[in-house]
Write a structure and sequence with these properties.
Distance between the termini: 51 Å
Shape: flat
Order of helices and strands: HHHHH
Number of domains: 2
Strand content: under 5%
Helix content: 40-55%
């Protein structure tokens, strides 16, 4: 290895410059599990009160938990086949559990 191999190369693709507001909007959409990015027109947008924002947007927080490799792979396969983000699949499952829709199936499950 020579010193030339350590030379910093310029990236082949130039990063697209986006505003801070656009970046935050795209990050919120990604957190909600949406795969398409919607560009919001902020020039003509009406300001929202804080109470409207609290009602419309659910709060998301990061959560760490442990899954077996088999469970992780199953969740990834399900996510790929449905096009739904893994975090959203877990939120859907939790919502169904809260509504009592799946309780019987899970109580009798052999999975530990």
């Amino acid at each position: 290895m020579s010193l030339l191999s350590l030379k910093c190369n310029t990236p082949s693709a130039k990063p697209k410059k986006v505003s801070v507001d656009t970046f935050i909007d795209e990050a919120e959409l990604y957190a909600r599990g949406l795969t398409t990015v919607v560009k919001l027109d902020r020039v003509n947008a009406k300001p929202c009160s804080s109470s409207q924002l609290d009602e419309d947007v659910p709060n998301f927080t990061r959560c760490t938990f442990t899954l077996s490799e088999e469970a992780k792979n199953s969740l990834t396969k399900l996510s790929c086949s449905t096009g739904i983000a893994r975090s959203r699949l877990i939120r859907i499952w939790l919502d169904q559990m809260e509504n009592g829709e799946l309780v019987g199936d899970f109580v009798n499950s052999s999975v530990r």
